[in-house]
Amino acid sequence: MSNGGSSIFDYPTKTVLKMIRYRFNPSSVSGLNKFNFIKPCRSTVPGRYLLADDKGYVCTALSIDPESHCCLETGEKFSCQGCNLISQCCNSYEFCVSCCLSPYRTAKELALKIKIGKPVTAGNYGNVFDFCAGRCRHSSASVVHENAYASDFHHCFSLPSNSSGGVSEEFSEARLAGINIVVGSQGENCNSVCKSRRQSCVPNKLPVLNKCDYLRRHMSCKSGCLTSVGADQPAEVVDDAPTDLNPGACLFTRLESMLSCDGSHQYTRRLCPCA
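Above: the chain sequence. Below: its structure as tokens.
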């Protein structure tokens, strides 16, 4: 001790330890509470009116927090406004992304197994936000002709049915939740099949049914399951069909772009997804 001042060494050991704990305890120093570390958000490219952030909120560009770039949390999180939850398609890109981000609608472990593009060498999505932002762009499953959409609900977030090795059989079953699988009459298209039950054919569920497993569950397929080409598939060839058409065989196609609710053939019975 010098000049009449006190030193830390003049205090008992227990007192010194208390002083140190107090000094380095953030809750005891009010100034430290002002430093709130904000995790920045990623968001979709702003559209004409809206954008969606990676937390699952939708807002206008003017409603973004300037520091975090997150939407101000005033609306509904994981909003499915303007979405058909059976077909998993929406009439708005931003609400499609928001709805898709819900962990109850998109399983992370499955989404991360999906390839970004068709080539075998294409990489996988790195996170659920990238998956949703990518899937919700105009879906080829909802295109009727090259530049025409079947309906306003052309932003779809369902997982692709051809993601073999990535999507389990259990998930295929989940994709058909709320769907009535109906076997049509000979020569009848799926629009007619579903309409007779006061329902509508769900076109983006046709690829899910376009598998031998589903055909065998609902049809006899006594002559096997064969790959074919036609808008009437998945289907079964009727027993009295000409021999060259393989009577009793179930048919699926590898050209899923050809699948259509209005496809029909005079010698087949279709397997239809109705809702």
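Residues 1-36 form one domain.
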